[in-house]
């Protein structure tokens, strides 16, 4: 039996084009599960290259998958366990939603083992990575040897995120984690990108729709690295979004920065598609400057960005700001990592657009 979606899921999961058509158009997103004694899956985290805050106003956001992420394994047990302790569904809404609503699982209890290499609450998409990795591991457990469509996986994880966030969730993190590479999320298709699928969600504020697009990263820039620097404090997304909205209401001219970020995003996508690392780095620098004008950076993030730029093509905060991380594009990852750590941060090295969710 193919265990996947239940009839009670939100309408948006199948409102758009038939998934068979989607899979044929994007067959690079179909993986094969190999039977294992203890089914395991990995899903990467993400960082935002361009579009923070402007995405709230309908402009594109550009995210890339990173090498670090979340691994989940499942195994039959005598009782429900998570990380060796008793599993309490109310404390883990993402996991319980996938068990109860996605798969409508009624089999024996499971021992769920989670391992993460992401900084927690740092804007790296750890929640989305967990949803994708657990969903894939459950699918492998219930359907050994069958194919897994990562477009469906992305929609499933988005459903779990929306459930946990009381009906509000962007598909950026879940799509990037599932598909890997470079993902562009917008209200419409974006020129210069390859459209993969559409998705929508009924939120308390009304219906939202998104186009999920990808950018094929040229192989000639494979020697470039991203260094992510963590400030040591979390990134309060909701609070920072509210802060920007308040700033714009008080200073309407600040809305011009949203158009500026949108233009920077388009320039960055052109540079990325052409393999122009210098242009990509310049766009990252410019994006950080606009985000500073929106008052979402802080002294520590600015200090880390300044330190990273000494050995980088470009650097910026990534995510909502107020804490969280910066990201630097470089050919000298070790020197950038050292500079970030001297500035008081912690660092991770990753390729520019890592592989998406997969079975292990």
Description:
- The protein is an alpha+beta fold.
- The chain folds into two domains: 11-217, Ribosomal Protein S5, domain 2 (2-Layer Sandwich); 219-351, Alpha-Beta Plaits.
- The chain is 36% helix and 26% strand.
- Strand 9 and strand 10 form a beta hairpin.
- Helix 2 packs across helix 4 (150-164), helix 3 packs across helix 5 (172-179) and helix 9 packs antiparallel against helix 10 (333-342).
- The radius of gyration is 20 Å and the shape is globular.
- The model is unreliable at 1-28 and 32-36 (pLDDT under 50).
Question: From the 3D coordinates, which CATH architecture of the largest domain would you assign?
Answer: 2-Layer Sandwich
CATH topology of the largest domain: Ribosomal Protein S5, domain 2
How much helicity do the residues have?
25-40%
Total helices: the number is 10
CATH class of the largest domain: Alpha Beta
Strand content: 25-35%
In total, the number of domains comes to 2
First-to-last CA distance: 22 Å
Low-confidence stretches: 1-28, 32-36
The biggest beta sheet reads:
9 strands, mixed
> H/E element string?
HEEEEEHEHEHHEEEEHHHHEEHEE
- Average pLDDT for all residues: 88
Topology:
Layout: H1 19-25, E1 30-32, E2 40-50, E3 61-76, E4 81-82, E5 85-86, H2 93-102, E6 110-116, H3 126-142, E7 147-149, H4 150-164, H5 172-179, E8 182-186, E9 194-203, E10 206-215, E11 225-230, H6 237-250, H7 256-274, H8 277-293, H9 299-309, E12 314-318, E13 325-330, H10 333-342, E14 346-351, E15 358-359
Helix pairs in contact: 2-3, 2-4, 3-4, 3-5, 4-5, 7-8, 9-10
């Amino acid at each position: 039996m193919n265990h996947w979606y239940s009839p009670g899921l939100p309408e948006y999961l199948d409102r758009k084009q038939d998934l068979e058509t989607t899979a044929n158009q994007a067959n690079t997103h179909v993986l094969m599960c190999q039977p294992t004694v203890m089914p395991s899956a990995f899903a990467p985290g993400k960082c935002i290259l361009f579009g923070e805050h402007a995405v709230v106003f309908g402009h594109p956001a550009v995210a890339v998958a990173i090498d670090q992420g979340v691994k989940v394994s499942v195994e039959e047990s005598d009782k429900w366990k998570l990380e060796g302790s008793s599993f309490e569904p109310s404390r883990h809404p993402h996991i319980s939603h996938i068990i109860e609503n996605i798969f409508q699982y009624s089999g024996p209890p499971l021992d769920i083992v989670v391992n993460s290499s992401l900084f927690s609450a740092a804007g790296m998409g750890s929640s989305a990575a967990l949803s994708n990795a657990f969903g894939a591991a459950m699918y492998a457990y219930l359907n050994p040897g069958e194919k897994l469509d990562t477009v469906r996986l992305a929609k499933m994880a988005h459903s779990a995120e929306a459930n946990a966030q009381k009906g509000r969730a962007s598909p950026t993190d879940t799509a990037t984690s599932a598909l890997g590479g470079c993902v562009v999320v917008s209200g419409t298709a974006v020129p210069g990108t390859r459209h993969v699928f559409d998705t929508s969600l009924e939120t308390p504020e009304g219906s939202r729709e998104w186009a999920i697009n990808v950018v094929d990263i040229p192989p000639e820039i494979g020697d470039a690295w991203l260094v992510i620097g963590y400030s040591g404090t979390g990134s309060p997304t909701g609070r920072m979004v509210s802060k920007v909205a308040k700033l714009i209401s008080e200073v309407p001219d600040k809305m011009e920065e949203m158009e500026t970020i949108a233009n920077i995003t388009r320039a960055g996508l052109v540079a990325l598609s052409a393999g122009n690392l210098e242009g990509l780095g310049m766009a990252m620098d410019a994006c950080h400057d606009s985000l500073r004008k929106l008052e979402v950076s802080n002294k520590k993030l600015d200090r880390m960005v300044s330190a990273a730029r000494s050995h980088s093509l470009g650097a910026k905060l990534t995510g909502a700001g107020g804490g969280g991380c910066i990201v630097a594009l470089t050919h000298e990852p070790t020197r950038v990592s050292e500079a970030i750590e001297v500035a008081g941060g912690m660092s991770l090295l990753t390729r520019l657009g890592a592989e998406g969710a997969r079975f292990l």
